[in-house]
Design a protein that fits this description.
The structure is a single chain. By secondary structure, the protein is of the alpha+beta class. The chain contains two helices and two strands. It has helices spanning 2-17, 40-53, and strands at 20-25, 28-32. It has a two-stranded antiparallel sheet with strand order 1-2. Helix 1 runs antiparallel to helix 2 (40-53). The longest helix is centred in the first third of the chain and has 16 residues, at 2-17.
């Protein structure tokens, strides 16, 4: 149940960011998108807060990366 709820939270965040979500295995998910500026840290904080505020009683840790596409 918790994985479904986390997945739904990530899907909502992905929709806002025009990104995609994939489950990479176990309890790990990937969210990938493009942006004119590197806003990955801000998005990660928003996602962590949304998961912590949910009723499922779990928290998340998120790693981020930004790459300039030429």
């Amino acid at each position: 149940y918790a994985l479904v709820q986390v997945g739904q939270t990530l899907l909502a965040a992905a929709e806002e960011q025009q990104a995609v979500v994939a489950r990479s295995g176990g309890e790990e998910f990937l969210l990938a998108g493009t942006s004119a500026t590197c806003n990955a840290e801000q998005v990660a904080k928003q996602i962590c807060q949304a998961i912590a505020n949910s009723t499922i009683g779990v928290t998340a840790s998120i790693g981020t990366a930004c790459v300039r596409l030429d």
